[in-house]
Specification:
The complex is a heterotrimer of chains A (423), B (370) and C (220). Chain A has 423 residues and is α/β, with parallel strands linked by helices. Helix content of chain A is 53%, strand content 7%. Chain A folds into 3 domains: 126 residues, Fumarate Reductase Iron-sulfur Protein, Chain B, domain 2 (Orthogonal Bundle); 144 residues, Glutathione S-transferase Yfyf (Class Pi), Chain A, domain 2 (Up-down Bundle); 122 residues, Rossmann fold (3-Layer(aba) Sandwich). Chain A is built from 21 helices and 8 strands. In chain A, the strands form 2 sheets. In chain A, strands 2-1-3-4 form a 4-stranded parallel sheet. A 4-stranded parallel sheet of chain A has the order 6-5-7-8. The radius of gyration of chain A is 22 Å and the shape is globular. By secondary structure, chain B is α/β, with parallel strands linked by helices. Among the domains of chain B are: 177 residues, NADH:ubiquinone oxidoreductase-like, 20kDa subunit (Rossmann fold, 3-Layer(aba) Sandwich); 74 residues, Cytochrome-c3 hydrogenase, C-terminal domain (Cytochrome-c3 Hydrogenase, Chain A, domain 2, Irregular). Helix content of chain B is 42%, strand content 9%. In chain B, helix 3 crosses helix 10. Chain C has one domain: Fumarate Reductase Cytochrome B subunit (Up-down Bundle), CATH 1.20.950.20. Chain C contains 11 helices and no strands. The chains are: A alpha/beta (423), B alpha/beta (370), C mainly alpha (220). The interface between A and C is large, with 63 and 59 residues.
């Protein structure tokens, strides 16, 4: 029997109240500028998708229980109460129409970090039983099988064999004391198997000591997306255990946005301690190798390339210059989208939207913002470094009959490595 | 010993001629009076004619809780003026400061004037008086309380002129905490016209102007919300102030000896109450038209307005609030911190309780929802 | 019946004391309540600092990013204009400087009256434009609660009555000034209990925002 209830949801929300939340709710003046930063509003024009409105239940609870004024209003019978119906009504707003991209947090004139609060609000939604089915299913699979897509080591093993055959290199597995533990995402393993081969070749080229772990290969974290720190902690703990078992110094998050924020920023807080290792996105590692002169490349892509910054990587983690340094290394005709870096627009699929079948139409609607951005600079190909973004870009561009292939940056780097002289 | 008795002039015209005032000087006064009363210049001869023929009305002057400043203002002109003459030709039958008689004889004079001119005489009052709820012994004349004397005297009067801010609004005696329970004449007299000629003291010509109108037209002047003659109190000091251009330009003296003060800039920041004060000082000036407070470099105190004594420090700008803001701020600050801490303990407790009772979300539990 | 001078002295005296007491009490409660909630310890290895990025964000949010300006130029221009106008009229009009000096002991140079007058006129127009925008823009209309309209009026009235008093458009003057002071007191009294709190908490919110992002190496 499921123990989810309104009261449990409210308790979860109460746990999330902190000084930033109180200062944010105290400051909103209903100017509506956050709507202008949200691809879900901009592309649908429906005011209910205004980011701050998505937090109304949480705001009501805060006002009623965490302000003296609200408590007084409550005593004399004024002010609305958060009901189960209300949470049910807000479920699509908090999940289907928000990718937690954080763009609203960057433009709010009074400084409200709305994405920070959306993440917190989802805790209450999970505990009150109002999370979308798609995300529940992904979370259950992630916890029960180790992968949100139910992917097993067996499948990965086949891939590894394939990579070893085609590259003639060994993919190190469970190597004690390696410098880097490489994590993967299920989506990558299924949709973009090129990635594994690319890093195998790059790390061989640069002489990096790395390994995969049988114990845990999955970097993604459905708990972060559904908004449950308990589920998130369970999944992060597996990464930490694997890293600690192998005694690695660093963990590399793959070309996936939320996996990186999950391990890099939320993970330590979910498990309540700091790690004995450091966490990097693959792009950070590649740029570091480039800076150290360990990436020797030849030839450049000559077609017009543009780049999509994953929200989780750029705006939410500060990895902005690294990918551009790498592009300079291998691309001759690179042009940035007009709003890029921390002001980039979300592809529309992040924050669990892509795992939530119900949100399919909204996801495509939100993509129109990206499409408009791409049309502005008319690239021949798009480059990105997140499997979710990449899938969304491919699907979206196809939907709108735009013949613009999407490539992963890691693979592109691998394609330009100077061939090692065979000994 | 026989004292040569000056023949009593019967009309103002007689009085003026007897005092050697030229026809030209008189007409000038009439023109000035007409303009003060906002009448067309063509009315000046009519005023002159009326004044020439005006009969001496009986006036009873009552002085209550006052400082004699109003009387001083009216009598202390340094040369004989037409205003003086106006006073000369009224029949000032009772004024205990000015009259020669004293004691019972004085009071008898008042009673006689009331009797002889019943229904026609004017009562001029300067000074406030202890109100009905107060101790009548605080101010008496010949053993009669001010309140009783006022009510008695006004009973047969045609009208009452309250001269000075004390009579008009209570003035200084009424200033907080008002120990004598002082009230204004108009607080007591409800059944007769009361004309307030406020000011501490009032401009002399204003009182003579009011009397002139009464003598000329037999009517009372048009009055403002405080029953003051519109002709003199219709405009604010600020609106007629020659320093107004400096206010409009934002040029202010900030101390009494700074450059702004020397250059004659606006005195607002030094506490000038001109913007909220309605009086004729700026146009009629004082001491025979020599100067007036603002011209001499001092801010207007707002003395012709009710409660001017309690309206904030004379040298505080008009916008400055009255009261002990500092202590209020300190008390509210301390209270706010205490209540804030209390309220936030409730909030923190609520959150701590939620954390303590946290039920871990598990995959099994989630699976039930599928 | 209360005369206009009684009314002015009431607003300048007891009511002013009541207003500043409620204002200080209320705003302190709000601020203490916010800060007392604190932040839980962050175990993630920081990429950047918090204090400096937080302060930068406090400043930076005065200038919207170019994208927001392109998409909502009206909000940005009108909002900025009337906010600046309101603050200039509030803090730099000489009589207001005198009030602040007498109340808290701080003083600064003011602006010439004609400048403040012009700024006030612009502020009034800006506020009217902002109201029309709120009534017509789909998002603003959707978000607006009765409080938003009440607060618009509470903000508009002190500016309007100040303009009327300055130009002596209503007589007697003590009434005009008293009404102006009364509207300012209403503003002070409701401030801690409404969205007007943002005057103080927006600085806090911006700092937290900048600190959150700054810790992750992004200047927000």
């Amino acid at each position: 029997m499921s123990g989810f209830s309104l009261e449990r949801g409210l308790q979860a929300l109460r746990e999330e109240m902190d000084a930033p939340v109180a200062s944010f709710f105290s400051s909103c003046v209903h100017c509506g500028l956050c709507a202008q930063a949200c691809p879900f509003f901009v592309e649908t024009g429906d005011p209910k998708y205004t980011p701050i409105h998505k937090l109304e239940p949480m705001r009501l609870l805060w006002e009623r229980e965490f302000t003296l004024w609200g408590r007084l209003k409550h005593l004399v019978g004024l002010g609305r109460k958060v009901t189960d119906d209300m949470l049910a009504q807000w479920e699509p707003l908090l999940y289907d129409s928000c990718s937690m991209c954080g763009r609203c947090s960057l433009v709010c004139p009074v400084g409200n970090d709305i994405a920070y609060m959306i993440r917190k609000a989802r805790e209450g939604m999970v505990a009150s039983g109002h999370a979308p089915e798609g995300l529940i299913a992904a979370s259950v699979r992630a916890v029960n099988t180790g992968s949100p897509m139910g992917l097993q080591w067996k499948t990965l093993e086949v891939q590894i064999k394939h990579v070893e055959t085609s590259s003639g290199l060994e993919v190190p597995i469970d190597r004690q004391g390696a410098d880097y533990l490489v994590l993967l995402s299920s989506m990558e393993i299924i949709n973009f198997p090129e990635y594994l081969e690319a890093i195998t070749r790059i790390f061989d080229h640069a002489g990096v000591s790395w390994t995969l772990s049988r114990q845990c290969f999955e970097a993604t974290n459905a708990g972060i997306q559904i908004g449950s720190k308990d589920i998130a902690a369970t999944l992060v703990q597996r990464v930490v255990d694997a890293a600690e078992a192998l005694g690695v110094k660093n963990v590399i998050s793959p070309e996936c946005g939320h996996a990186y924020t999950a391990i890099r920023w939320e993970g330590p807080n979910a498990i309540g301690r700091s790690y004995p290792f450091r966490v990097f996105h693959i792009i950070e590692v590649l740029d570091q190798l480039r800076a150290e002169g360990r990436l020797r490349t030849e030839g450049k892509e000559m077609d017009r390339l543009s780049m999509h910054d994953p929200c989780n990587l750029a705006r939410k983690s500060g990895v902005i210059d690294q990918q551009r340094h790498l592009m300079d290394l291998v691309a001759d005709n690179f042009v940035d989208l007009k709003e890029h870096g921390k002001f980039q627009w979300c592809c529309g699929a992040g924050g669990g939207v892509s795992s939530n079948e119900r949100a399919e139409a909204l996801k495509m609607a939100a993509f129109k913002r990206k499409k408009a951005q791409i049309e502005e600079v008319e690239p021949e190909r798009m480059v990105t470094m997140c499997a979710t973004c990449r899938t969304q870009l491919e699907e979206g561009l196809e939907e709108f009959n735009m013949d613009i292939p999407v490539v992963g940056l890691t693979e592109m780097i691998a394609d330009h490595l100077v061939e090692k002289e065979r000994a | 010993m026989a004292v040569p008795i000056r023949p009593q002039p019967r009309t103002l015209g007689d009085s003026l001629r007897q005092n050697g005032v030229s026809r030209r000087g008189f007409l000038k006064f009439c023109a000035a009076t007409a303009s003060m009363m906002a009448l067309p210049p063509s009315m000046a001869p009519a005023i002159a004619a009326a004044l020439e023929q005006a009969r001496r009305p009986s006036v009873i002057w009552l002085s209550f809780q006052e400082c004699t400043g109003c009387t001083e203002s009216l009598t202390r002109s340094f040369s004989p003026t037409v205003e003086n003459l106006i006073l000369d030709i009224i029949s000032l039958d009772y004024h205990h400061t000015l009259q020669a008689a004293a004691g019972d004889a004085a009071e008898h004079a008042r009673e006689q004037a009331m009797h002889e001119n019943a229904g026609n005489y004017l009562v001029v009052v300067d000074g406030s008086l202890p109100g009905p709820g107060s101790n009548p012994g605080f101010s008496t004349i010949a053993g009669v309380s001010n309140l009783q004397m006022l009510q008695e005297t006004v009973a047969g009067a045609a009208a009452v002129v309250a001269v000075g801010t004390c009579a008009a609004f209570g003035g200084l005696p009424k200033a907080a905490p008002n120990p004598s329970g002082a009230v204004a004449v108009s607080d007591i007299i409800k059944d007769k016209p009361v004309i307030n000629v406020s000011g501490c003291p009032p401009v002399p010509m204003v009182i003579t102007g009011v009397l002139a109108q009464y003598l000329t037209f037999g009517t009372l002047p048009e009055l403002d919300a405080y029953n003051r003659p519109m002709a003199f109190f219709g405009q604010s000091i600020h609106d007629r102030c020659y320093r107004r251009p400096f206010y409009d330009k934002g040029l202010f003296a900030e101390t009494f000896d700074d450059e702004g003060a020397r250059k004659g800039w606006c005195l607002y920041r030094l506490g000038c109450k001109g913007p909220m004060t309605y009086n004729a000082c700026a146009t009629m000036k004082w001491n025979g038209g020599t100067s007036w407070p603002v011209e001499s470099g001092h801010p207007c105190l707002g003395c012709s307005e009710p409660d001017f004594w309690d309206a904030g420090g004379f040298y505080n700008a008009m916008s400055v609030p009255v009261g002990d803001s500092g202590n209020v701020l300190l008390a509210a600050g301390a209270g706010g911190l205490a209540l804030g801490v209390g309220a936030s303990l409730l909030g923190r407790h609520k959150r701590a309780a939620a954390k303590a009772g946290h039920e871990t979300v598990t995959a099994d539990e989630l699976e039930q929802k599928l | 019946m209360m005369s206009s001078m009684d009314f002015l002295l009431f607003t300048k005296g007891p009511l002013f004391q009541v207003a500043i007491a409620i204002f200080v009490l209320g705003i302190l409660i709000r601020l203490v309540e916010i800060f007392a909630l604190g932040r839980s310890r962050n175990f993630a290895e920081p990429r950047g600092g918090q204090v400096i990025p937080g302060l930068k964000t406090v400043y930076k949010r005065f200038n919207p990013d170019p994208g927001t300006f392109r998409r909502a130029p009206f909000d940005v221009v009108v909002g900025t204009v009337w906010h600046i106008g309101f603050i200039v009229a509030l803090l730099l009009f000489i009589p207001h400087v005198e009030v602040i000096k007498a109340t808290v002991g701080l003083a600064w140079p003011g602006l010439p009256n004609p400048v403040v007058d012009a700024v006030t006129a612009i502020t009034l127009l800006g506020l009217i434009a902002a109201l029309i925008h709120r009534l017509t823009h789909p998002v603003k209309r959707f978000l607006s609660t009765p409080e938003d309209y009440v607060i618009w009026a509470v903000t508009f009235l002190p500016v309007l009555t100040g303009y009327i008093a300055y130009h002596r458009l209503v007589n007697p003057y003590p009434l005009a000034l008293g009404v102006h002071i009364l509207t300012a007191e209403i503003f002070l009294i409701v401030l801690p209990f409404t969205k007007l709190t943002h005057i103080f908490t927006a600085v806090v919110a911006r700092w937290f925002n900048g600190a959150n992002f700054g810790r992750k190496g992004v200047q927000s």
